């Protein structure tokens, strides 16, 4: 496991009008590791991810990427650093095939024409690099794929661009047991290939099955970021639901700016 974060956030604040959604948030994601981002509905997970991916500007705070302070003002900035997000709704086009989906909006051209052989080869190499063997033909329409296969294509699309950090928003939410296991294996493989992976999940079994670290948001504050081996299922549930764990000597990662303690007054820490 690497001890140097690829992405480190310090003191992130984000409000929408009078509503403060993120408050002094610290967060770190490490190459070769899966960091699970957990929190109840409305805790601020999606907002944090949208700040990281340049969709929302932050009000205050610092981003450090690969050891350098960076400003992320647009999704293009995030993509150029190698940050990709796979959203829950996948944004795949049913009427296009796998290759067309993987290159949608970033097609390779040979002069004026699409360079289909190169795109097909890159798609095949990416899927092979992820040990994906469940897809029969790269030219099959996405509409004919199972939920797990669709998720696989969406993840492969995200890693096609020399990504360094991949953020997955509830990748198993709509999947059955076998497909969930397949997708979790793929999530693990991404990290084993050296990527920093952030996994948003409400499913504690998934979180404990695949993550190296767990970051818990509660009412817009990061109440813990700990190694998965150092926390129990019950303690994570307590952090998510109460913002603190009575018996937990919180071991917040070095370099993460949060103090690891629960909000001094968690009733004022967020929004309803
Ligand atoms: N554009 C916005 N304008 C105003 N408030 C917003 C906006 N986006 C999010 N919020 C509020 O910020 C809070 C955090 O929302 P967010 O979607 O980040 O939570 P979440 O942890 O991702 O929740 P969930 O698990 O339900 O997706 C919520 O109370 C939400 O209503």
TrEMBL record:
SMART domains: AAA. It comes from the Bacteria. One of its GO terms (molecular function) is ATP binding. Residues 7-244 form the ABC transporter domain. SUPFAM superfamilies: P-loop containing nucleoside triphosphate hydrolases. Pfam families: ABC_tran. Transmembrane segments: none annotated. Keywords: ATP-binding, Nucleotide-binding. The keyword Nucleotide-binding applies. CDD domains: ABC_Carb_Monos_I. This is ABC transporter ATP-binding protein. It comes from Micromonospora gifhornensis. The lineage of its organism: Bacteria, Bacillati, Actinomycetota, Actinomycetes, Micromonosporales.
